[in-house]
Amino acid sequence: MQLLKVEENGTAKLYFLSSALWFVLGALEGITAATGLVIPDLFGGIAGLVFSRVRPMHTTTMIFGFAGTALLGGAHYIVPSVLRTSLWSERLGKVSLWVWNLSILTGLVALDLGHSQGREYAEWIWPANVGILLAFALMFVNMLQTAANRQEKIMYVSTWYIFAALVYTWLIYFFGHAVFNMKGAITGLPDAILAWFYGHGIVGLFLTPLAIAIAYYIVPRVARSPIYSHVLSLVGFWTILVIYTHIGAHHILQAPIPVWLKTMAVSGSIAMVIPVFTVLVNLWLTMRDRLGLFHADIGGRFVTAGLVWYILTATQGTIQALPVVQRVTHLNNWVIAHSHIGVFGFSGMIALGGLYYMLPRITGKPLYSGRLADVQYWLLVLGMAGFFMVLTAGGLVQGHAWLNGTTVYRTLPMIHIYFIVRAAVGLLIIGAAFIGAYNVIRTIRGEQAQDERIFGEVFQGDPQ
């Protein structure tokens, strides 16, 4: 079958293509939801376009469809590359891709029809969740067999993060989505605890390890220098696995959950500075005195931007976990700003960096248009900066109004202008999504724009 055609790095290529297409859909869902906040009656009550359905469609499309799919594409390229072998089964890899895409589509269609578990980031119905778990299992088997057949004895740090992401994500997805219960979510505080054990973990134990794996792969190659410290990579890896698993409860500090769990969540959130800044210091010291190389390489430039957003995401996340700060920031647009820079600014930018760095090496030809990739980069930088500022400002207005006793309906007129600006900024993201999809499709077809300035060099062989 053509869909399961065996070709070198064919699995990674199709993951990247799928990500580019999901990005377009996710951006359209986002602008639909944002416009609905500005003009609530715009869609005339059409069930499939109401905010309560489109918003979870947007978040899950961006997490799994766009960022997650691109990061998994990078994983399918990195593991064979650093282990000096071929992917154990390209056919199995493509099976996992189609199971993955079909599961995402099933979840999104169900949400649009009103079928949801009603839990943050864990809204998909049971069949979609089973499909996602099956896809992860297939990926793990493929990666494990690839590692068993490796020619390189040393397991580079990127492979650690990739295997950890596959194992941890399977476990938190199973429990967080209550897959053991075919009827969907369970009830009461246990459900809230499980939901946020998953809700925070899907960012920190799925997107983050895969993004770090790509950064550890690309940064030394663009810098043309070995990683600064193997010891720091060990510290960063083990501390994130130990600390991140239990901090999701800081989202429900106001709920009557056990005090010991609240204490663990807050203290763990503060302790996250250890793995985050260990990784960042290691990568920045690898990059020092070589920033010109990253400016010249479009993939390296996206990764650099993602690492900058990682600093902001981690710093803000630690601060907002403090109970005294949550008095102002809890349940308002401050948190939405944080989720945008975490999923999109950090993970999404690094995912695109992996795509633009690896795709020319997969096809053996340069990008269709380096200029278009450059335009997409600046649209996303400006768009993410706009999202962060307007949502943070709107959240502070909301939080202080509520703290002073202002009712919700009196607060809405205060933040209406922020919703308008947010929707306007979203147009930059939509433009970036369409530009990226066009560039990726033309690159995979082996085409080259005329009068094109090439960003970086065509793949001739990576240092191992």
Structure report:
With 464 residues, the chain is an all-alpha fold. It contains 15 helices and no strands. The longest helix has 37 residues, at 408-444. The chain is globular. The model is unreliable at 453-461 (pLDDT under 50).
The helix fraction, in percent, is over 70%
CATH superfamily: Cytochrome c oxidase-like, subunit I domain
Based on DSSP secondary structure assignment, what is the total number of beta strands? Answer: 0
Envelope shape: globular
Rg, Å, rounded: 21 Å
Number of helices: 15
Structural class: mainly alpha
CATH class categorisation:
Mainly Alpha
Largest sheet: none
Mean pLDDT: 92
CATH topology: Cytochrome C Oxidase, Chain A
Low-confidence stretches: 453-461
Which second-level CATH architecture applies?
A: Up-down Bundle
Q: What's the number of structural domains?
A: 1
Quick rundown:
The chain has 464 residues and is mainly alpha-helical. The protein has 15 helices and no strands.
Per-chain topology:
Elements: H1 10-38, H2 51-82, H3 90-112, H4 126-148, H5 157-176, H6 188-223, H7 230-243, H8 259-271, H9 273-287, H10 291-296, H11 298-320, H12 323-329, H13 333-363, H14 370-403, H15 408-444
